Amino acid sequence: MSAGVPQGSVLGPLLWNIAFDFVLRLEQEEGCRTVCYADDTLIVSTSSGAFDAVLRANIMAARVVRRIRGLGLSIAAQKTEAVYFYGKGKEPRVMPTVYVDNAYVTTTTSMKYLDVMIDSRWSFQDHFRYIETKTSKVSRALFRLMPNLRCPHEGKRKLYANVLTSVITYAAPVWSDVLSSAFLRTLQPIIKLQKSVAIRVVSAYRTLSFDIATLLARMPPWVLQVSLRCRVYGGLTDLRTRGEWTKEAVAEIKTQERTIMNRQWSARLNRPGAPGTLTRDAIMPHFSDWLGRNFGSISFRLTQLITEHGCFGHYLYRMRKRDSPACLHCTCLSLNDTVEHTIF
């Protein structure tokens, strides 16, 4: 073949890498670097001033475009994005313009690269808003597949929930450093979303707390899962750097980091004043066994027994759905209709 991209073959990605390596071997302008992933090409231009940075970017862009055309390919200038990074208090009055393939591209304060929103200050606020919007759309579609009173069972529900977990934690090592207390307000909608997902997994009432919903669903908080992925990424990077990468070493790192995450999660659940005393007292002494169980399934009825959130007089009275917490099936109506009363 004389031009184009090979597709439809297992050799396609390899042939593409061989061909596009021609672009990466290009002489780099001072302060510039070219990064390629699949068919995305990123040019990074650095300088102490905006004028020099734009000038270097224009020179490097012209070289890259020339090389890409030499492969028989073309550049979609209308899809090209440019972002200008600046320090605190150095926001320009007029955003610079970059010249790419006979078209002017005005720099902006954020851009999407490999499905990650990168902003000028590396705060990732735009990325958090982006994943909030994205997960909201996905969750609405998944919730229609997870009604409380009908199938699917817990296993399939967890599979659906893992779709959202993958969306939330995507590229976590890139943006995890900004997860300080100042940014937790931004994550509140995402935390609320995980609670809704966990409630759907275990077919629970909406009044269930975040801690108990995630505990029953065996879904560690997404914030902890983000930290887990970052630590695993750092450990695997160290293995490659030392030349000690093996399947066994990778598995050991993942096991160790997951153990650390479970300990952190357990400490959160056992903090003073945590909600769901009844459920925690039943599960926390067997926390590891609960997370690792491969039998049984949580259902709508079983969740009510474990949480006491359901068709019990005590709960309905607390929710102001009934005038009395008494059991309607007992001759002595003074009895409090709780889980213990129903079972024992």
Automatic annotation (TrEMBL):
One Gene Ontology MF term: RNA-directed DNA polymerase activity
Keyword Nucleotidyltransferase: yes
Pfam families membership: RVT_1
Presence of the UniProt keyword Oxidoreductase in the record: no
Top-level taxon in the UniProt lineage: Eukaryota
Keywords, in A-Z order: Nucleotidyltransferase, RNA-directed DNA polymerase, Transferase
SUPFAM superfamilies in UniProt: DNA/RNA polymerases (SSF56672)
Residue ranges annotated for the Reverse transcriptase domain, each copy included: 1-118
PANTHER family: REVERSE TRANSCRIPTASE DOMAIN-CONTAINING PROTEIN (PTHR33332)
Name of the featured protein: Reverse transcriptase
Lineage: Eukaryota, Metazoa, Ecdysozoa, Arthropoda, Hexapoda
